[in-house]
Amino acid sequence: MAMIELGFGRQSFHPLKRKSLLLLKLIAVVFAVLLFCEFLIYYLAIFQCNWPEVNTTAYDGEQATREPVLRAMFLADTHLLGEFLGHWLDKLRREWQMERAFQTALWLLQPEVVFILGDVFDEGKWSTPEAWADDVQRFQKMFRHPSHVQLKVVAGNHDIGFHYEMNTYKVERFEKVFSSERLFSWKGINFVMVNSVALNGDGCGICSEAEAELIEVSHRLNCSREARGSRRCGPGPLLPMSAPVLLQHYPLYRRSDANCSGEDAAPPEERDIPFKENYDVLSREASQKLLWWLQPRLVLSGHTHSACEVHHGGRVPELSVPSFSWRNRNNPSFIMGSITPTDYALAKCYLPREDVVLVIYCGAPRQTSAEALWKLAFSLVPRESLGRHLIPSTPSFSTRHPGKQASESCSDHGKGVLKMS
């Protein structure tokens, strides 16, 4: 009788052991997939990005000096969801993606300053005080940064409303969190941050105040270009003698995205749709004022969620920065800039594609080992969809390379498209 019971126990032991091993393997596969898709894939993507090289030698007459380099990150249109729009799972998924991407970029790339080019929030234009406070708290958690890294944010239409929705309360609420700073100088480089929503030109109170601020900034920039001690400039401190980098949410005026190209440009079926002034882009008049008043050497903007590189007046390059969120595009990215007082170099860093992550999740159940999962991941993540893409610079105001110009493939009222390298 004892032998029969012993034999029965031996027969039932092996199936139980096999089930336990299968369960352990399943748990290991699930853990490996989660670890890769929610953490490691961001390191894999951003590790391939490097700061672009920029010439740091400046010439003042016959004397050569070495200029400091500022490492700056530019991203746009994070669109943190509020209390009304979007499913809770949508909010959780996309905000986790942006948090992991941002924190990984900070750790690997160690920028000195980060600029967010508007539409930080999706529902700031109508959110209640309680909802606004909750959105701000989530933003500060997602985009937390060390004290030595500066974070600068410009206003977008989803933060304070379109012109017809904008009011003093919303603008002041935004500026209380993100500052009302219009001019930021560091390492001899001037950045002008514009509330482009307020450049409607209809004489509204907020618009008039915004124009007055820009005229004052223009005066200070002009003084930096003039001889030291000019009577017109007064006794106050002068800005660095460097053409500014213009940062705003709305792009400068262009007819459409018809001349834009690249894997993260607008879809072909949308590129020929005409842009509406003061809605999709700034008006012609506002754009001309900014170019005339500020004389920027480079313009960076957001709003369209897609990439585009154009020339204004045949000289001033503008780069529209794609959205940083999976909610707005499958292949988000950000811009890396190595900037000196007289030159700059830009590169684009692509984040993981959302469809790649979903395919890895779907294909994981068929894999039986960590090695197979790793091979699956690499087979689905093409090299050209990750890492750094150099963007040709056009330092029109450079004192070292007066003849250096990016090529134009076409023109439209003085505007051209910068060819991707």
UniProtKB/TrEMBL annotation:
Pfam families xref list: Metallophos
Localization annotation: Endoplasmic reticulum-Golgi intermediate compartment membrane
Entry's transmembrane regions: 21-45
UniProt cross-references to CDD domains, sorted A to Z: MPP_MPPE1 (cd08165)
Molecular-function GO terms, alphabetical: metal ion binding; phosphoric diester hydrolase activity
Keyword set, alphabetical order: ER-Golgi transport, GPI-anchor biosynthesis, Hydrolase, Manganese, Membrane, Metal-binding, Transmembrane, Transmembrane helix, Transport
Gene3D superfamilies per record: 3.60.21.10
GO CC field: endomembrane system; endoplasmic reticulum-Golgi intermediate compartment membrane
Superkingdom in the source lineage: Eukaryota
Cofactor(s) needed by this chain: Mn(2+)
Membrane topology: Multi-pass membrane protein
PANTHER family: METALLO PHOSPHOESTERASE RELATED, METALLOPHOSPHOESTERASE 1
Family, as annotated: Belongs to the metallophosphoesterase superfamily. MPPE1 family.
Oligomer status and interactors: Interacts with GPI-anchor proteins (via the GPI portion). Interacts with TMED10.
Protein name per its UniProtKB record: Metallophosphoesterase 1
Originating organism: Piliocolobus tephrosceles
The gene coding this protein: MPPE1
